[in-house]
Every structure is written in structure tokens, then in C-alpha cells.
Design brief:
- The complex is a heterotrimer of chains A (175), B (218) and C (228).
- Chain A is α+β, with helices and mostly antiparallel strands.
- Chain A is built from three helices and eight strands, in the order αββαββββββα.
- In chain A, the strands form two sheets. In chain A, strands 1-8-7-6-3 form a five-stranded antiparallel beta sheet.
- In chain A, a hairpin with a 5-residue loop joins strand 6 and strand 7.
- The two termini of chain A are 26 Å apart.
- With 218 residues, chain B is mostly helical.
- Chain B has one domain.
- Chain B has nine helices and no strands.
- Chain C has one domain.
- The longest helix of chain C has 41 residues.
- The radius of gyration of chain C is 20 Å and the shape is globular.
- Classes of the chains: A alpha+beta (175), B mainly alpha (218), C mainly alpha (228).
- Chains in contact: A-C, B-C.
- At the A-C interface, helix 1 and helix 3 of A face helix 1, helix 3 and helix 6 of C.
């Protein structure tokens, strides 16, 4: 009798583990674009929107400290604020952006200064989530199975509860 | 209350040291373990290795020292005597005495280590404080646990089983803190570790104070 | 019928909460993080198991305290069954954590204080059962085991809660990593997470309560047959 809930738990565990594994196994992290743009020191260094095509909602990734000299607009422009603030020769920071299809990209921007020229390198990785084909219907299989397992567990508990209640009532009557 | 506890501590000391053989056995234990290390390692340059060996010796010595806490009195005297005292004071006295015992142990172990294995420790004061706090945590925890295990049929076997899961994390913190003291890092970087050790000590003593009377009803 | 419902409303609540939370765990929007990708949904399962475990162990401690104060053996039985259920949740928590770690941290077990603390805390409760097994006399067993239970729970809280915060840890919320708030736990996620935690805690109490009641029924039957 006590074996049954452990079976249910292990089944849902295994299933959940496999489902989780599926969603991460497919994700490959590869840079899909590296662009170097050399400019002399004016304002806009890079237009991320133009380079990567149609991204929006650009924010600085959490945990990244943006150097004073750089400003990033939500539309995807990386702007140099003023020449005087350029202290170091190399700047590295990370930027998070989302695409119109609700994909999230994490973009590493590296700015290097050689004298008067600034070279900006962009590497963008897509954070693979289970959007796309999974969300189109296969996710409901996951939902259905987990719900079924849960409902089976609850039914078992209810039946057990009822049985124990009857047993206790019988014991009360006897004594 | 404190005078009663003090007299109980003196009583414990008298019980423990009256049998010279048992006291001697503790020091023989310490010395032989250190000697084995010495023969295997000659000198130890690396503070991390020194630290590890030190903690092995401290752990097992304090376990050994505390195991007999509840077997010091013979049963007849115990029954009469314990009618007169409050159990919460008794446990505080036993823990206090075990603190002193482990303090003496640590004070004894460190010079023996110096003698045989060299002394690569840089921040000696902090190292000593950490060792004392940790050894105190071991002994107080083991005292409480041996009180519980003493009620069962297999006291000597049960005490490590009950005590070691609790002692293990304390040991990890202690080894880390002592390692940092040995390699001479600044206190500001790892001050939270000795504080944790101190907190463990306080929590265990407080728990013992409240819980031991229930054990004593038998 | 209504009488039964009024006493068991919390079980109904648990089921409803989880019927909502489990589908939403898969369907809801989650914050997107590198390394984690979709596995962040495991939050709703792995972490909730730990919360349920702590809640059930707390219940066990409460019953131990009541056992000590009243001397009633029924409380001791309840404490033991709650501890058993708590261990089951802890085991599930560790296994789900290991699966999660294999895919995010690369290996199922790393040398992390929170992991070590959780393994140690389960070892403490295993020791509780060893202690129970080694004392035959029921009243003494109740007393000693209850004392150890209280000790064990306090140590559990210290080991899981305090220690990882002070040392380096891979876990979020400890050792310099931002906590769940900093993991930009969006409000969407909070809306699934909190019901899920509450639901599993209540489920834990339900399961533990059932185990306790069945054991008590067994005990009463034994008592009856030994009296007669």
C-alpha cells in the first residue's frame, strides 16, 4: 500500500526529468554573427537592430556593469556618450535583447580602441527556449501527462483517506 | 546557579582525573596519531596538509575525550547524587568541563604538531581561536548526543552515528577557516566563518540546556 | 458530508492549487536565462519539494515537543511518520536537484555547501531512525527520540539556511549569486511559484497525516488485542 505513492512519485520524477532534459538537450550555444565595425569617435557606434535584424527591447544583462562612456538605447543603438569618458582601451559587456518572435538573445559586445579608431565586435547567442514547434501543441502532451499522474495520486490519497476514516470509526465503535 | 555549576564542574574534573590511566590514555592517543603522521610525512611545508592532519587528530581526540562523559560516575553514586542536582545545570557543567578538556587537548596538540611537523601557520592567534571554537562545538554536540545515546543499548556505537552528521558541516567550516588562518589571509575576508562556529556552539549549548532535563527523567 | 468538507478543506485547496500550478508550470512564461533555458521550470518542482520537506519536518518537531510535554505516545507516532514523509520529500528534492544539476552544472553532484548541507540533514534524520531502532522500551524511546528530533530540526535549519549564505555556492541566492528576486523572477513566475509551494506543503501534510493515522490505527488495534 505504501509502495503505490512512491511509484507515482518516481514516475512523475522520471517523466519530469526527461521532459526537462529534452528542452535543454536541443539547445546549442553558437555565435551566429561576429561583426567588426571600425569607426572614428562620433556618437553612434553600432546599430544592433541593423546588424542583427529586427531585435527590440535591448537591455543591459543583469550583473553587467555598463561603462560610463557607453549608452544603450532600447531600440538597439549603442552610443558613445562623450570622448572624455573613454578611459580604458577595451570594454566588454553583455546585452539582452528580444526578437519579435519572443526569442531572447544575449549579445556580447566588445569595444576596442586603437588610437582614434574604435572597433566593435558583436557576438550574439540565442537562448534556446522551447518556443517554436514545441509550444505549438506538443507542450500539451507534457501538461496532460503530468496532470494525469497528479490526478491518479490524488485519487489514491482520497481513497486511502476514506478507508482510514472508516477504520478509525470502526475502532471507536468497538471501544 | 553559577556556583552550583562551578562545583559540578570541579566534581567532573575530580572524576575524570582521579583515574590517571584514563587521562594518560587520551594523551597517548594524541601522541601516537601525531607520531604516525610524523613518520609518514617527515615535515609538512604546505599549510593545507598540516591543517588537514591537524583536524583529523583534533576530531578523533575530542570524540575520544567526550565519549566517556556519562560513564565517569559509577551507577550507585549516580542515582543518589542526581536526586540533588538540577539536570539543566548538570548538562551545562558537563559541557563546560568538556570545553575545558578540549581546550587542553588543543593546547596540547598544537605544540606536538609544531615539534614534529613544523609550523607553517602564519596567523597563529586566529588559528587557535578557530580550533578552540570548533573543538568546543564537537565536544558540546557529542556531549548532548552521548546523553541521548546513553539511554539506548549501544551507547558507544550510537554516539558517532548520531553525532557525526551534525559535526561534519562544522568540521568543513572549521577546516576552511583554519586553512585561511594558516595561510595568513586577512581576518576581514573570512570573519563570518568563526562567527558561524561560535553560533553553532551557542545553539548547541542552549538546546542542551532545554532538552537535557527531558532525558533525565529516567 | 459538509462536516467532512469543513475539516478537510485544506486538502481540497491543495489539489486545486496544484491543478492550477502544474499546467502553468509548463505553459506559463518564464524568465529566460543562459545556462538554465527551460529548466528554470524545475523551480516549481525541486524547490517546492524542499519547502514541503521543511514544513513536514517542522510538523514532526512540533509533535515531538508535544510528546515530551504530555507523555502521550500518539504524538510520538505522529512525529515518526511525519519524519518519514519528510525524508521522502527530501529524497525527491535531492534526486530532482541531481537531475537538474546534470544538465545545468554539468555533473549530478558538486562540492557545494547547500548540497552537502542537504545531504547531511538527511543523514541526521536517518540517524533519528537508527536511534529509534536501538531503544526497545517505548516510553524511553519516545523521550529520547523526541529530544533528538528537536535537536535535528534546529540543526537542519542551521545547515540548510545559514551555512550556504556565508560560503561560496553555486546555488542562486547564496554565496554572492543573486537570490530568486535577482534572477528576475518575473511576476508571472511568482504567480505559479507561490501557489505551487503552498500546494505541495499541504500535500505533504496530507500524506504525512494519512501515514500517521494508519500507524495509529495499527497501534490501537495492537493495544486492543494485547489488552484482551
Amino acid at each position: 500500500m505504501k509502495l503505490f505513492p512512491t511509484i507515482i512519485f518516481s514516475a512523475s520524477l522520471l517523466f519530469g526529468g526527461m521532459a526537462v532534459a529534452q528542452t535543454t538537450a536541443d539547445s546549442t550555444v553558437q555565435p551566429n554573427e561576429a561583426v567588426a565595425v571600425a569607426k572614428s569617435i562620433p556618437d553612434t557606434l553600432v546599430d544592433l537592430n541593423k546588424q542583427l535584424g529586427g531585435i527590440m527591447d535591448v537591455t543591459v544583462a543583469k550583473g553587467t556593469i555598463l561603462p560610463e562612456a557607453i549608452e544603450i538605447t532600447p531600440a538597439g543603438l549603442i552610443i558613445l556618450k562623450s570622448e572624455d569618458l573613454l578611459k580604458a582601451d577595451v570594454y566588454n559587456f553583455e546585452v539582452k535583447a528580444s526578437s519579435p518572435e519572443n526569442e531572447v538573445y544575449i549579445i556580447t559586445v566588445k569595444i576596442r580602441r586603437d588610437g582614434e579608431k574604435l572597433t566593435t565586435t558583436i557576438i550574439s547567442d540565442k537562448i534556446d527556449m522551447a518556443t517554436g514547434f514545441r509550444k505549438e501543441g506538443k507542450i500539451y502532451v507534457v501538461v496532460a501527462i503530468s496532470l494525469i499522474l497528479f490526478v491518479v495520486l490524488v485519487t489514491y490519497l482520497v481513497l486511502l483517506d476514506r478507508r482510514i476514516r472508516k477504520l478509525n470509526a470502526k475502532l471507536e465503535n468497538r471501544s | 546557579m553559577f556556583t552550583r555549576i562551578l562545583s559540578l564542574v570541579k566534581y567532573e574534573a575530580m572524576l575524570e582525573f582521579r583515574n590517571k590511566a584514563l587521562v594518560g590514555s587520551l594523551f597517548v592517543y594524541v601522541f601516537s596519531t601525531v607520531f604516525v603522521c610524523y613518520r609518514s610525512f617527515q615535515t609538512v611545508e604546505d599549510p593545507a596538509v598540516w591543517n588537514a592532519l591537524f583536524w583529523i587528530v583534533v576530531l578523533f581526540s575530542s570524540t575520544n575525550a567526550v565519549l566517556r562523559t556519562f560513564q565517569r560516575e559509577n551507577k550507585g553514586n549516580a542515582l543518589y547524587f542526581y536526586q540533588l542536582i538540577r539536570p539543566s545545570e548538570l548538562i551545562v557543567a558537563k559541557i563546560a568541563f568538556n570545553y575545558i578538556l578540549t581546550l587542553l587537548l588543543v593546547i596540547g596538540i598544537i605544540p606536538i604538531f609544531w615539534l614534529l611537523l613544523g609550523n607553517p601557520v602564519r596567523d597563529m592567534g586566529m588559528f587557535f581561536l578557530v580550533s578552540f571554537l570548533a573543538a568546543g562545538a564537537f565536544s558540546s554536540c557529542l556531549t548532548l548526543v552521548s546523553a541521548m545515546a546513553g539511554k539506548s543499548s549501544n551507547a558507544a556505537g550510537l554516539t558517532p552515528v548520531l553525532g557525526f552528521p551534525v559535526i561534519l558541516p562544522v568540521l568543513m567550516v572549521a577546516v576552511k577557516a583554519a586553512g585561511k588562518a594558516a595561510s595568513g589571509t586577512a581576518l576581514s575576508e573570512y570573519w563570518d566563518l568563526p562567527v558561524v562556529l561560535g553560533a553553532f556552539n551557542i545553539v548547541i549549548v542552549v538546546l542542551s540546556f532545554f532538552l537535557f532535563p527531558y532525558l533525565w527523567r529516567d | 458530508m459538509l462536516g467532512i468538507l469543513s475539516r478537510n478543506w485544506w486538502k481540497v485547496l491543495a489539489v486545486l492549487l496544484l491543478l492550477y500550478a502544474i499546467p502553468m508550470a509548463w505553459l506559463g512564461s518564464v524568465s529566460v536565462q543562459v545556462i538554465l533555458h527551460e529548466t528554470i521550470r524545475n523551480l516549481y518542482f525541486h524547490v517546492t519539494m524542499w519547502f514541503a520537506m521543511i514544513a513536514v519536518f517542522a510538523g514532526s518537531m512540533v509533535y515531538s515537543i508535544r510528546a515530551l510535554r504530555s507523555g502521550n505516545r500518539l504524538f510520538d507516532i505522529k512525529a515518526q511518520q511525519f519524519a518519514q514523509t519528510g525524508m521522502m520529500f527530501g529524497f525527491i528534492g535531492i534526486v530532482t536537484g541531481m537531475i537538474w544539476a546534470t544538465y545545468t552544472w554539468g555533473e549530478p553532484w558538486v562540492n557545494d555547501p547547500k548540497l552537502n548541507g542537504s545531504a547531511v540533514s538527511l543523514m541526521i534524520y536517518v540517524a533519528y531512525f537508527v536511534l529509534r531502532g536501538s531503544i526497545d522500551e517505548p516510553i524511553r524511546r519516545m523521550r529520547v527520540a523526541s529530544v533528538y528530533n528537536i535537536f535535528a530540526f534546529v540543526m537542519l535549519i542551521l545547515l540548510i539556511g545559514l551555512m550556504p549564505r556565508l560560503t561560496d555556492s553555486l546555488h542562486p541566492g547564496n554565496g554572492g549569486n543573486p537570490g530568486f528576486g535577482g534572477y528576475d523572477l518575473k511576476n508571472d513566475m511568482k504567480m505559479v511559484f507561490y501557489p505551487s509551494v503552498l500546494g505541495w506543503i499541504l500535500m505533504g501534510f496530507w500524506i504525512a497525516g494519512l501515514m500517521a493515522k494508519s500507524k495509529i490505527a495499527e497501534y490501537k488495534i495492537e493495544e486492543d488485542t494485547s489488552d484482551k
